[in-house]
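Continuing the series of single-chain predictions for the mutant panel. This is the parent chain; the variants come on the following pages.
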Amino acid sequence: QVQLVESGGGLVQPGGSLRLSCAASGITVSIYAMGWYRQAPGKKRELVAIISSGGSTNYADSVKGRFTISRDNAKSTVYLQMNNLKPEDTAVYYCSQGVDWGQGTQVTVSS
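Parent structure:
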């Protein structure tokens, strides 16, 4: 059974940073392309960042230069380092390999 558990969200002021974690079990994260997605109220879920099995990364234009996705294969964990956060980054963040989804973690950027 695949489980993806996101954590690390919270309330942060604009310009602040957060590091999200996605702990995976039941799958080997190193052989999948793992992505971070987000969904803001009233909006569709969107892909924020993705890391391939080979380690290459891609980002949505809105987060390039501010977010960094990484993976620790030994810990079966995928991370999303988010810097210079903006109010428009407020959303529930999820990780997924495209099939299974966690419960998400709320990120709120507000002064």
